[in-house]
Amino acid sequence: MNDCATQKMRFETQSALALEAAFDGGRITSDGGLLWLAEADSELGLCEALASCVPEWRKRQGRHSLTSLIRQRVFQIACGYEDQNDSNSLREDPLLKLVCGSLPESGVDLASQPTISRLENAVDSRSCHQIAEALFELYLQQRETHGTPEKVLLDFDATDDPTHGEQQGSYYHGYYRQHMYHPLLVFDGESGHLIGALLRAGNTHASNSAVAFLKRIVIRLR
User: pTM of this prediction?
Assistant: First the structure.
């Protein structure tokens, strides 16, 4: 395809490494949207904020920083690879490596499934509370960009998160007709920004904990 009429396209990245889209084969990736996800994360500082809440469980210095591990997990989920086992096949993906801070060819491969599993198991109830606070602070920073808003519209949304095993808290839900979790999400109704999330058991009523969640949010907003 050396005579392809389509021109090469260049993309901006967070590193000095040039990134081009071409049509002459070579190492490829099917997740080009990672570029925009990485740019959004760089602007928001989301993964760094989450990494600061996760306790370091390793007894010696690990090959991958906590921020790199969080980025890998968040980007994989955002691209539809929720299963931890997907890390084994994606750890060599050139674009995923790049957005996680590793060079596509010469850089060290990303973390495998066992490391990702240990990362998630290291998060305790205290860490979950800190992550919730970090998400809320990010929301406040973005919402205040153009000054203090005159009003805030809160959008509460219960959604289904299907499960495929015997995870703790997984139950059959008659309306959705599946085994699932039933998390409660709160968004800013005008900006669409995520304010908070609450993981709930699969058989939980849609409105469960909504009032308590609302009280905490209103107190913080005031």
Answer: 0.79
Q: Are 1 and 23 in contact (CB under 8 A)?
A: yes
Same-domain check for residues 20 and 110: yes
The domain in which residue 182 lies consists of 148-221
Same domain, 113 and 183: no
- Structural domain total, the chain: 2
Reported as a single tens digit per residue, the pLDDT across 50-80 is 999 999 999 888 789 999 999 999 999 999 9
